[in-house]
Amino acid sequence: MRKTIVALSLISALAGLTACNDNQETSSAVIHQQHSKAAAAFSDAARMLGSAVGEMCQAQTEKTLAASRSAWQVLMQDWMIFQGREKGSEQALALSWQIQFWPDKKDITGRKMEQLLAQDTTWTAESLAEQSVAVQGLGAMEWLLYANPDRLSQTNGCALAQAVSQRLIHSGEALAEAWKANPWQAMTPQLALGEYVGALTNQLDFAMKKLTLPMGKPGHPRPYQAESWRSQTSMSHLKANIQAMRSLYLAEGKGLDALLRAQGETALADRIAGQFDSLLAGWPQSASMGALLKTRDGYRELISIFNGMEYIRFALHDEVSPALGIVVGFNATDGD
Description:
The protein folds into two domains: 29-178, A middle domain of Talin 1 (Up-down Bundle); 189-324. Helices cover 69% and strands 0% of the residues. The protein is built from 14 helices and no strands. Helix 2 packs antiparallel against helix 7 and helix 9 runs antiparallel to helix 14.
């Protein structure tokens, strides 16, 4: 009788383990599809920006400038899905700095762009690829469209804008190609799960850094350290990060949220999902972080957002990882 009970217990445990592994494999497939679709969307948005910049250079008007800025905003929003995750396709990760050079604490982008415009050169995407990554991506385009639109009327100014947009098109195509293959398919379910939680934790740490750098110390903010201070849209991009992390956490009902519930951790799953929803529901109206940094009330709002993200971070590290048997290692922002 005792042998029978032990055997039944073992069968039950193995069945549970198999179900858990099956769920993790399903999560991996869904998360890969999320990245693949997002990469394709980024590539399409890059082409739209290239088209808008081309039209602007043919006819420089307020309307064409506004259209280029709008296209840049869409591309930035699409990039926020990938920003800071540091997990997945190695080919995709290698593109990160040329797509967006940030943090840029010493305004390398501005100085390098000035140097390029000072040269008697008609820049192309190919020649730009030989230059610093600081002038090849989203930050360089923001510098032209928002901080220095007057440079677009210079002989080589619009040529540089078109070169940057074409370089972004090439990067977008490479990103979409890199995400066609599932980088987690060959991993064991547990290893893939660790990568999944690691991606979420990394992106959360990166988003928190986007707050702490410009917030500085109380009474001494550093607004020019904000991600998109030139376009005054840092808050809208940070919100897109939170939305992307929420989407990654849920993974269309097949993600970490579902895995926790399958393990009986319903209360924990509810708290994390609720915290994401609470952050988004209470998001400040201002798209500019600089505007919030100017007032005490605005600074308090930023502290509240930071605390909300920190709550999720602690939950992932101190509760989720032990519950699912995951060892969380160092990430790309540790030590900064």
